[in-house]
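[stage:ingest] chain + small molecule (SAJ)
[stage:ingest] validated
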Amino acid sequence: MVFRKLCVLGLGYIGLPTASTFATHGLQVVGVDVNPEVVHTLRNGGVHIQEPGLRTLVQAALRSGNLTIQSQPAEADAFIIAVPTPFRENKLADLRAVEAAAQAIAPLLRKGNLVVLESTSPPLTTVGRVAPLLERSGLRSGEDFYLAYVPERVLPGAILRELIENDRVIGGVNRASAEAARDLYSLFVRGEILLTDATTAEMVKLMENTYRDVNIAIANEFARLAERFGVSVWEAIELANRHPRVNILRPGPGVGGHCISVDPWFLVEAAPELARLIRTAREVNDGQPHHVVELARLAFGELAGWRVAALGLAYKADVDDLRESPAIQICHLLQKAGAEVIAFEPYRQEEQVEGIRLARELPSALQGADLLAVLVAHRRFRSLSPSFAAQAMRRRCALDTVNLLQRAPWEKEGFKVVKLGEGIG
Ligand code: SAJ
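[stage:predict] done
[stage:export] tokens:
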């Protein structure tokens, strides 16, 4: 099938790179976002997302004239839905944005069009929720128009490379739909394209992230056990991973981001009586920020009145994304315990983030602090000098949740160093 015009609904972490990549591969792309600020920023040459290489790509796509930004969808040969699927307070999937996108496409739909859902969704969303909304057009999915679920699998921080190089799973509501979507994605995907049905593709996406979540949960549980038994989980993991069939992930302050901390709940919601391990893993990972604050309390005593320099607020190392960040949760828990928190997040320059005061530079966060808390393993934190910190701080206490600090030089400067996953001695 040949595509000339594409309409991408949702210009976030996935939609924007996808729309821009198609545009730089020769398609006429209309990028649509319901948020007027996003439309305004993009139209004026800005980019609202920090991702290596993205600004250059978006600007190239816009300059080529192939990418235009609008607030309303337009007729096209193919439509891609890449809108967020968050969950509500009760951990139930919020599909309103997906449904609104499908409703917006329905009046524009023509015979022979392709519609692709990329947003992570609970099983059966494509056939059970999206197809009926599109069929309000009077056209039948799989017969009059093609419909496929094509999950994104890119890693924030490496999106542009992974978008092109990763293998891509394509699930059609029928074979013809999968083949139509393959024709579209093969314009730029260099990884292998694997065809299946839509519901299998939905399961694949959820299984990938759930698998990672469960594996991080066991690492976090090992960290708690290691603390109990007075061994270093970091050393134990390194040694266990020398086994040819063992590969334990890294414990940390918790699991954040918009994917792994959300997606497993879609399986729990769909079949709570079956997804017991998945739920427990979620609870272990969600409990990790509380565990970190408890560890600090055990090691340093009550933290009321302490000034804490929090290093990093992002949900993981070397990205600017703050969504579902365990670091932010830890800061709030520390505040609740009566501590004064001043954070330094190299990717954020604002005055405040979610009620947390931000220092513009690292030294001003450290100035007069009682406790240095490393919450994210950003590369630039590795060069932090213990003697500099010792001079700037009021008390020499360090809490490392990501195994970033080397114990010996910090202890030489008189620091009491407490690490997640190590006994407190
Ligand atoms: N984390 C740990 N220990 C580890 C690895 C990660 O605590 O050993 C934490 C991170 O610090 C972070 C969270 O887990 O808070 C998730 O980070 P991540 O790097 O594992 O994954 P994401 O959420 O950035 O991206 C994931 C990826 N999925 C998988 O690796 C299976 C990515 O390929 C998906 O495209 C993405 O979710 C998505 O959009 O679904």
